[in-house]
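Let us work through a complete example step by step.
Step 1: write down the sequence.
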Amino acid sequence: MKKILVLGAGLVSRPMVRYLLDIPGFEVWVATRTVSKAQDLVGKHERGRAIPLLVDDESALSRLVSDTDIAVSLLPYTYHVKVAGHCLEFRKPLVTTSYVSDAMRALDAPAKSAGVILLNEMGLDPGIDHMSAMRVIHGVKQNRGRVTSFMSYCGGLPAPEANDNPLGYKFSWSPKGVVMAGRNDARYLKDGEEVSVPGAELFGHHWPLKVADGFEFEAYPNRNSLPYIQLYGLEGARTMLRGTLRNPGWCETLKAIADLGILKDDRVRPGIAGLTPAAWLRQYVPGTAKLRSDAAAKVKLAETHPVLDRFQWLGMFDEKPVGIEQGSNLDILAKLMLDRMAYKPGERDMVVLHHEFVAEYPGNRTEKLYSTLIDFGVPGGDSAMARTVSLPAAIAVRLILQGQLKLTGVHIPVLPELYNPVLDELARLGIVCRERTETAA
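Step 2: predict the structure and record it as tokens.
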């Protein structure tokens, strides 16, 4: 019996746990602070165990890692290196869905010495984005071509029938994480020129994008795209862009929120249980007129602009207390959003991952290639976000434990021996990247 330690029982854990419990010979231990959440995941399955764990309890964590055959960390990324240290001590492989940090990357040589793999970025973005891109890129190279332009976009959104609020968004993962991501600087390469976008201007830098099945979104750059030129083996490419997708209206609204000065001030505010959104906003909006009028002046928009209607809808002008004891501006904004932008029972979410390539071949032949994944959640069941984040990691666990993946060191899924079996199994599960090719003029 192979024992799998799953650390964390959050929003994306369920599809992974169920997938692994369906495999004969696998036992799944779910360890988390709130053991009732782990119990909900394993149910009464004879090969499932729910274990209480405070991840800062080093001795308990060490004991669990030593007693199992592989660890999966679905904890916040700040804990991954700690878990990896225990995995190296007991020569156990590790799988995460998070970006590789510098501290994790530094464990490459120790992992090789220990003969184990520390496999990261095995989710959706990062994860399926790498795998689906590399399958196309390697295919182009095998046909003696080279990719000269690569643009990749990803977004988790409400399905069309659930898209019923003015911001066109609902939360399938951490609201604060969504808000924090709106402060990041961005860099990318476009037609041979490097473009830098300061975090404060991020949402002012967006454009419309049409993808398969008639969907049209807003796209904006996601962090620093330049390292992916080397990572994907695209030296000489003139365009490299990784972006985020949202429904129309999101970017101009978040740009106005950023212009208020709210996003850059992340001081923790104690004793704010009685603070109202209106009083909070007034700290950033000077003037003596109505708050809506002064807010419109601050962000240089007409008082009748739809952005001010969205502020109103979010409750930013309300006199009712926010309802949190302490927190930063990001916590306050996230609370206002989550109160109004959570999925209702039975609603579906949607995940969209879309790549666009330009490939040049001998004989002056040029092609445009597309790879698009559109996946929907199951009403009353798993969200598309949960499926696409946790199932790639679950498949990797199976490959490692069944001896089909023998790599050692720190890895992400950009090698064929990693991405081919994972993408093939995802397709069997109904998560399919559809590819098409056009001959360019």
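Step 3: interpret the result. The chain is about 35% helix and 25% strand.
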